């Protein structure tokens, strides 16, 4: 018995087998195409330089019942500075792996009197306001939350 043309496609776990041109029912030729790329395979991509994020803006604690704190960050040339209702100073920015850390030089915590640090996450500054019994400190006595999230306001 002759078959004109027959294609069999089997798909299993992202692998595909194709049967091409059968001449007789008793003789089936299977050919294996080039290996398919698995869905979880990461293909190399061209590396483009990333634009530096914009840190400028006014960051505010959204829940004023927790704290009424606002920090404005500005940039002049390559230097960032900050202003609060009581203090002005410079912002030191440090990148480690995928994290970005801010140190507000001149903005002192309540106890000890050390520069306040924050983690920058997209458009939010996160400040750990106080420590624990093994590492006691307090950044802002007027704020009643362990973590302060200051959200950058729309301009």
Strand order of the largest sheet: 4-5-6-7-8-9-10-11
Briefly note the structural class of the backbone.
mainly beta
Quickly count the domains: 2
Strand content: 35-45%
Helix content: under 10%
N-to-C series of helices and strands: EEEEEEEEEEE
Mean pLDDT, nearest integer?
A: 80
- The 3D shape can be described as globular
Strand tally, please?
11
Characterise this structure:
The chain is mostly beta strands and about 160 residues long. It folds into 2 domains: about 35 residues, no CATH class; about 100 residues. It is about 0% helix and about 45% strand. The protein has no helices and 11 strands. The strands form 2 sheets. An 8-stranded antiparallel barrel has the order 4-5-6-7-8-9-10-11. A 3-stranded antiparallel sheet has the order 1-2-3, with no helix packed on it. A hairpin with an 8-residue loop joins strand 4 and strand 5. The chain is globular and about 50 Å long. About 10% of the residues are buried.
Task: Please write out the topology.
Layout: E1 8-12, E2 15-19, E3 30-31, E4 57-61, E5 70-76, E6 79-83, E7 88-96, E8 99-108, E9 115-121, E10 124-128, E11 147-152
Antiparallel strand pairs: 1-2, 2-3, 4-5, 4-11, 5-6, 6-7, 7-8, 8-9, 9-10, 10-11
What labels describe this entry?
3-stranded antiparallel beta sheet, 155 residues, 0% helix, disordered N terminus, 2 domains, single chain, 8-stranded antiparallel β-barrel, mainly beta
């Amino acid at each position: 018995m002759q078959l004109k043309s027959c294609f069999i496609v089997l798909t299993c776990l992202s692998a595909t087998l194709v049967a091409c041109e059968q001449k007789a029912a008793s003789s089936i030729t299977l050919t294996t195409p080039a290996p398919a790329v698995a869905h979880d395979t990461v293909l190399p991509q061209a590396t483009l330089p990333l634009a530096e994020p914009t840190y400028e803006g006014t960051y505010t604690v959204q829940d004023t019942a927790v704290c009424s704190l606002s920090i404005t960050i500005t940039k002049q040339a390559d230097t960032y500075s900050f202003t609060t209702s009581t203090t002005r100073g410079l912002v030191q920015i440090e990148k480690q792996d995928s994290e970005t850390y801010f140190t507000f030089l001149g903005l002192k915590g309540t106890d000890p009197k050390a520069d306040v640090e924050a983690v920058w996450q997209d458009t939010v500054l996160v400040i750990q306001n106080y420590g624990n019994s093994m590492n006691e400190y307090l950044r802002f006595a007027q704020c009643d939350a362990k973590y302060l999230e200051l959200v950058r306001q729309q301009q």
